[in-house]
Amino acid sequence: MGKRVALVLAGCGVFDGSEIHEASAALVHLSRAGAEVKIFAPNIEQRDVVNHLKGSPTEEKRNVLVESARLARGNIQDLAELKAAEFDAVIFPGGFGVAKNLCSWAVDGKNCSVNEHVSSTLQAFHSAKKPIGLCCISPVLAAKVFPGCEVTVGQDKNVDGRFPDAETASAIAELGCKHICKNVNESHVDKANKIVTTCAFMCKAPLHEIFDGIGTMVQEVLKLA
């Protein structure tokens, strides 16, 4: 029987929701591994709505759960209904929606607050010693909720211009966590906390390399489950 995995989304679209390629990559790798996946998102208003063609915010109002349903093909539940006891692991794709909707990192950095249902979900899986997978910017959720944990968002320096958000690593360190430098096709496993992270689009890399890196994250999560 396949592992039961909860996937938590933050909307639909890189600039104001979940990064679509990351969510899809996670789902493909989970499907290939025979995992049983259920998708969740918080039933809250997005912090903002971005016109992805122009890259600028609009005056629209959108709901994170409703927008995430686009990625889930309509098969999605309110995050408040997620019960850790019913799953073997949880995975969070990245995208600016994580930093805007699941927490306030986009505005407050290391002083951010984390959505109550996101925090309680992370705490529940951690307390049950069940693995947590995070990619792109979503490792900051673990850094905020679990001081002292180990995560990666890629590199701590903008190596060859490929890591423009390398300062995130410093902010993670300031939270009392350990940042581990990894390449885009690698993931890091914090065995003590059962937290698996990979940098995904925090690195400017070809899509197939990001896809492969997310694959290593999914593989390590399932090994721990």
Can I get a quick summary?
The chain is an alpha/beta fold and 225 residues long. It contains 8 helices and 11 strands.
Binned strand content: 15-25%
* Helical fraction: 25-40%
Main sheet record: 7 strands, mixed
Mean pLDDT across every amino acid position: 98
Spell out the helices and strands N to C: EHEEEHEEHHHEHEHEEEH
Q: From the structure provided, what is the oligomeric state, counting identical versus distinct chains? A: single chain
Distance between the termini: 13 Å
Give the class from helix and strand content and strand pairing: alpha/beta
Unreliable sequence segments: none
The CATH architecture would be: 3-Layer(aba) Sandwich
Whole-number tally of structural domains: 1
Number of DSSP-assigned strands: 11
| Radius of gyration from CA coordinates | 16 Å
CATH class: Alpha Beta
What is the H level of CATH, i.e. the homologous superfamily?
A: Class I glutamine amidotransferase (GATase) domain
Largest sheet, order of strands side by side? 5-2-1-6-7-11-10
Shape, principal axes of CA atoms: globular
CATH topology: Rossmann fold
Number of helices: 8
Offer a few descriptive terms.
8 helices; 225 residues; Class_I_gatase-like; two-stranded antiparallel sheet; GAL3A protein; Rossmann fold; alpha/beta; seven-stranded mixed sheet
